[in-house]
Specification:
single chain, alpha/beta, TIM Barrel, eight-stranded parallel beta barrel, 42% helix, elongated, cytoplasm, metal-binding
Length: 290
């Protein structure tokens, strides 16, 4: 989409005010980013979910800053006209502020991201404020925060009681005050997500947070069941089954190779008769094709 202009954080805030939902999808490489941009998505998230869906880990915790820089750079090459957010991976923003800024610098200068995303609420607001003052847009992330899954007791729905709802609201407001341009709400009850969205002037982007947030984000591999085995998720709507198509296609390829039906004569290149005669010492017609 050569004529497409990337969104910016000012336009996103206006979209919230105008009631225009934001569309966001994850991408981790050049082809998925290119397809997402061609499809017209507003934003791309290079999520540390790549640990689960690309790198084969059972959580996001092993993902490194090197991983994120590598994949972000690939995504930017594929979607140069789309606003791209890169995740700050586990423990890259909980040390000294100098260390945090060094990691942000890598994602922005080496990865070429437009913004970074950070999990957590009030406890990370000092870092968020410093990063924003340095000129880097920050997208917050509260609710289910996968980097803290061992601390919060697993992949649990957030905002199911009054105390938890109050905590989420306080965290969201704190992130807004610290300068975050938006907040991801993950696996949050619809009622609480709606109330938080109404209380903030910045956009909320939901994943499993119901219908009344300001935008939605889903993982690329969930959209298309691009996994084996694929585990259905209640909050995901799938738009295709790439996993089955890929598996069946490779299975057919294996069959064709074993049965020698691939390649056939439409897939081969032939030499001149003189070349064949020089190679085999006899006419081309007498040379069998293996």
């Amino acid at each position: 989409m050569a004529n497409k202009q990337p969104l910016n954080i000012v336009k996103m805030k206006k979209m919230k005010a105008d009631g225009i939902p934001l569309s966001m999808v994850t991408a981790y490489d050049y082809p998925s980013a290119s397809l997402a941009e061609e499809a017209g998505v507003d934003m791309i998230l290079v999520g540390d979910s790549l640990g689960n869906v690309v790198l084969g880990y059972d959580s996001t915790l092993p993902v490194t800053i090197d991983d994120m820089v590598y994949h972000t750079r690939s995504v930017v090459r594929g979607a140069g006209h789309t606003f791209i957010v890169a995740d700050m991976p586990f423990m890259t923003y909980h040390g000294s502020i100098d260390s945090t800024l060094d990691n942000v610098k890598r994602l922005m200068q080496d990865g070429h991201a437009h913004a970074v995303k950070m999990e957590g609420g009030r406890e990370i607001c000092t870092a968020v404020e410093t990063i924003v003052k340095a000129g880097v847009p920050v997208l917050g992330h509260i609710g289910l925060t996968p980097q803290s899954v061992n601390q919060i007791g697993g992949y649990r729905i957030q905002g199911k009681d009054e105390a938890d709802a109050a905590r989420l609201l306080e965290d969201a407001k704190a992130l807004e005050k610290a300068g975050a341009f938006g907040v991801v709400l993950e696996l949050v009850t619809e009622e609480v997500a709606r109330f938080i969205s109404e209380q903030l002037s910045i956009p909320t982007i939901g994943i499993g947070a119901g219908r009344y947030v300001d935008g939605q984000v889903l993982v690329f591999h969930d959209l298309f069941k691009y996994a084996s085995p694929y585990r259905d998720k209640r909050f995901v709507k799938t738009y295709g089954d790439i996993g089955t198509i890929v598996r069946d296609g490779i299975s057919q390829y294996v069959h064709d190779v074993k049965s020698r039906s691939f390649p056939d004569e439409t897939h081969v290149f032939t030499a001149d008769d003189q070349v064949v005669e020089n190679l085999y010492g006899k006419g081309k017609e007498k040379v069998g094709r293996a």
